[in-house]
Amino acid sequence: MKIFVTGGAGYIGSHIVSALGEQGHEVMVYDDLKTGHRDALLAGTLVVGDLGDGELLRKTLLSFKPDAVMHFAAFIQVGESVLKPMKYYNNNSANTVRLLETMTDLGIRNFIFSSTAAVYGDPQSTPIDEDAPVKPINPYGSSKAFIEQVLRDLSLAGNLRYVSLRYFNAAGADPLSRIGERHDPETHLIPLILKAAKGEREQVSINGTDYPTPDGTCVRDYIHVMDLADAHILALEYLMHGGKSEVFNCGYGHGYSVREVMNVARAVTGINLPVKETRRREGDSPVLVAGTSKIRRVLNWKPRYDDLNYIVKTAWEWEKKL
Question: DSSP letters along 212-275, please?
Answer without folding.
Answer: SSTTSS-EE-EEEHHHHHHHHHHHHHHHHTTPPPEEEEES-S--EEHHHHHHHHHHHH-----E
